[in-house]
Specification:
Porin, 8-stranded antiparallel beta barrel, mainly beta
Length: about 180
Amino acid sequence: MIGRLAIALLLGGSSILHAQAVPTASRAGDLQVGAGFTIAKSGYEQQNFQGFTAYADFDLRSHLGLEAEFHQVSSTTSDQSYQRTYELGGRYFRAYGPLVPYLKIMFGRGDFNYPFGATDLAYNLFAAGIGADYKLRPSLSLRAEYEMQRWSGFSSPGLNPQLVTIGVAYRFAGKPHSR
């Protein structure tokens, strides 16, 4: 009796059972890696610096992402001073066709080499930035960005560099990014 009931339930319930394929290759997000030329007002004795930036963005979901960034800018004079920063933070972006403007908030560490190698000290920093990526192709973007940094613990009046970067990035995505 119990065996017949179990068989009847299995056969009768088979109409509500159906196979559904689970996606096996869905992406957790899109990765973009780029580099650019940077000019900066160092915030130290009105010096101007030039150098490069390397960055990576990982967009987790619609409008939100993470960014990691490295800056290396050096004095345009022969005094051997430079600023090097390592930053990590979040970004908010919107897409308007190929134009993708964004805001970002970053935290990190900055290394300042004083003029003529007097000393080399590291400081914690906070940075905020605004910029835009322009998609030339699904896998290639141009970037223009402005960033302000505030280095904590730097002697009075403080160190608050401002950086402008123009760059290019490659996007690792299986299809055009819809953002």
